[in-house]
Design brief:
Number of strands: 16
Helix content: 10-25%
Number of domains: 3
Radius of gyration: 22 Å
CATH architecture of the largest domain: 3-Layer(aba) Sandwich
Number of helices: 7
CATH topology of the largest domain: Rossmann fold
Largest sheet: 6 strands, antiparallel, barrel
Structural class: alpha+beta
Strand content: 25-35%
Strand order of the largest sheet: 11-14-13-12-15-16
Mean pLDDT: 93
Shape: globular
Oligomer: single chain
Length: 359
């Protein structure tokens, strides 16, 4: 229970189905850390804040079931926050939510749920799980509400994690969830959605990376480097590669006679390469750390639709499984800004076949 309307409505739904409910809320980040970042940012726009813990407890009291707060701060920092910062410093654009799902929510929290005797861990994710009667495998599917679908962030789950999980909101729209919350008079029925990462309270990743690095006594003074054209001509300077992501146009720090975009980031040379938009479009990429979530590893190339970021429209492609948990993706048409650190997720209709990291 994150304290938001989605997970709170899940608890109400399960109660209506006659299930016994116990609420678990994760304490993931000490909100008193890095106070210089807090400013005047509204607490309701970031998940897992102290206010969210109180909201979750208020929902549990309203629905009359036990509620516990579990502290995973140390593990969360080691498996989510630190890799997030380190990858940005290495010129990549990481997805913290995917790591949090695979390594914290559906690992530590699922284990905790089983320890207290729970049969399933139910969450407010907009996705679906079903069992394939022919293969015996659990399949991950996109949510009915495409505008809220979160399957892109769940491709890293294992069969064991899927078998112990339940996504009751997968068949509902956001409007239906709000309506149900209002009917049962949940105290969070009108609560706005969280918009930022729980450990980046003001939504500014660059400021967080700088403050967190300073706290860890990691100097970023050597981060200053060159912004160059494709031909290697120096056309600007930067204060660290963590300020940039592939496809970025604004905030380059210099004026040009035409629109320029970040094409690539070389952290070893501390160099950012910029160029025109059409150069960003590529037809091929490799992915690593592939997890075949809803099927066994295919033995031959196959066609599927692939998303290369959460808001990316799935594009048709040929996927060639390779050795050592990698695969090659060849799109039918060039795709813009294939970004290291993001994930490529493979879909067959609504089914998530698998996914991997873009290196």
């Amino acid at each position: 229970m994150s304290g938001g309307v989605d997970s709170s409505t899940v608890a109400a739904l399960l109660q209506q189905q006659g299930r016994t409910v116990v609420g678990l809320t994760m304490q993931l980040w000490n909100q008193r850390r890095l106070p210089e970042l807090l400013g005047d940012c509204p607490a309701q726009h970031r998940c897992c804040s102290l206010d969210d813990v109180y909201d979750a407890k208020a929902v549990a009291q309203h629905l009359n079931f036990p509620h516990y707060v579990v502290n995973f701060e140390e593990h969360f920092e080691a498996r989510v926050v630190r890799p997030f910062v380190d990858q940005y410093l290495a010129g990549r654009t990481p997805i913290a939510c995917t790591n949090c799902n695979a390594d914290v929510k559906f690992e530590l929290l699922l284990r905790m749920a089983r320890q207290i005797g729970a049969e399933l861990l139910a969450t407010g994710h907009y996705a679906r799980i079903r069992e394939n009667g022919d293969t015996g495998r659990r399949e991950l599917l996109r949510a009915r509400d495409e505008s809220k679908d979160q399957s892109y962030f769940l491709w890293g789950l294992s069969q064991e994690q899927l078998s112990g999980s339940d996504f009751p909101l997968g068949e509902l729209t956001k409007e239906e969830v709000r309506a149900l919350a209002r009917r049962v008079k949940l105290p969070v029925a009108e609560k706005p959605e969280s918009m930022e990462l729980c450990f980046v309270p003001n939504g500014n990743y660059v400021q967080f990376i700088q403050a967190y690095s300073q706290e860890r006594s990691i100097s970023l003074q050597n981060g200053r480097g060159e912004i160059v054209s494709e031909s290697g001509e120096v056309i600007g300077r930067h204060n660290g590669v963590h300020n940039f992501t592939i496809g970025q146009r604004k905030g380059l720090g210099f004026a040009a006679g035409k629109p320029l975009y970040v094409l690539s980031i070389d952290s070893e040379k501390n160099r950012v390469v910029v160029g025109e938009d059409d150069v960003l479009r590529k037809t091929e990429c490799e992915v690593e750390g592939v997890n075949w979530i809803s099927c066994e590893k295919p033995s031959a190339p196959f066609r599927a639709f692939v998303k290369i970021r959460h808001k990316h429209e799935p594009a048709p492609a040929m996927i060639e499984p390779m050795d050592a948990g990698s695969a090659r993706v060849t799109f039918d048409t060039p795709q813009r800004a294939i970004t290291p650190g993001q994930a490529a997720v493979f879909y067959h209709g609504d089914i998530v076949l698998g996914g991997g990291w873009i290196p």
